[in-house]
C-alpha cells in the first residue's frame, strides 16, 4: 500500500541536492538578497494577499525556497516534507538567511498528527504537489484538520487538464486519466525538471491526477468554503517541451501558439467554516 511513498521518497531524496545546486531554485540568490522571493510565490502574491502575522504551514515544502519566501512576506512558517535530504537543505537555507522556520519530516497524511490539529491560519501548497498523493479526499481532511476556524488554504498546482497530456508525442495528445484512479500512473524518467548534469538512479515514480471537481469536493467535505478558483494558462516549468515558450517576466511557461487553449494551472483558496 505504501510502495508509492518508498519509490517517491527515494526519487526526491536523490534529486534534492541537484535542485539546490541549480540556478532554477536560486539558493545563492536567497542568501545574497534578503528581499528575493521565489518565482512561484511572486506569481501567487496578487491572489495570496497579505500573510503578515499568519501562522502558516507549507505542505510538501521540498527544499524550502517557497517556505522562505512566505516567511519573508511576514508569515510565521512551518514546513513539512517527507524527504530528509530536502529538509536538511531547507534548514540550512533558513539558517544562512536568518529565517525562523520550523521544519518537520512527515508524509502529508500524517501532518495533523505531527503538527497538531487546528493550529494554523494558513495552509499553503505549491505547484507540483498533489500529483504525488493517491487520495485527494484524504488530503482535504488533512487540510481541514490543520486549519483554525476561519483559517484558509491557498493552493496553486498543475491543472488536471494538463495532467492528461502526453508530452512525448509530436502532437499534443490526451493520454492519462483526468479523474483520480485507484492505481497509480507509473513513470520511469531519468532526469528532473531543472537544468543539471547529475545522473540519477532512483527514476521510478507513482503519481495520480485529480479532477478539479474532485479537489473542490474534497475541501467542501472537509468543512471548507471555496472563496477563490482561478485557472491559468501557464506553469513554472516546461511541461510540454517543443510546444511551450517562456515568459521571462513571470518565469512561467505557456503554449507558444494560442495559449488560451490550455488550462495549465489553477489557484484555489478556501476557508475553514466555524
From TrEMBL:
Q: Which GO terms describe its biological process?
A: methylation
Any one GO MF annotation of this record: methyltransferase activity
> Which residue ranges does the record assign to the Methyltransferase type domain?
58-153
- Superkingdom assignment: Bacteria
Report whether Lyase shows up as a keyword of the record.
Answer: no
Record's keyword terms, sorted: Methyltransferase, Transferase
Q: Which InterPro entries match?
A: Methyltransf_12, SAM-dependent_MTases_sf
Protein name, entry field: SAM-dependent methyltransferase
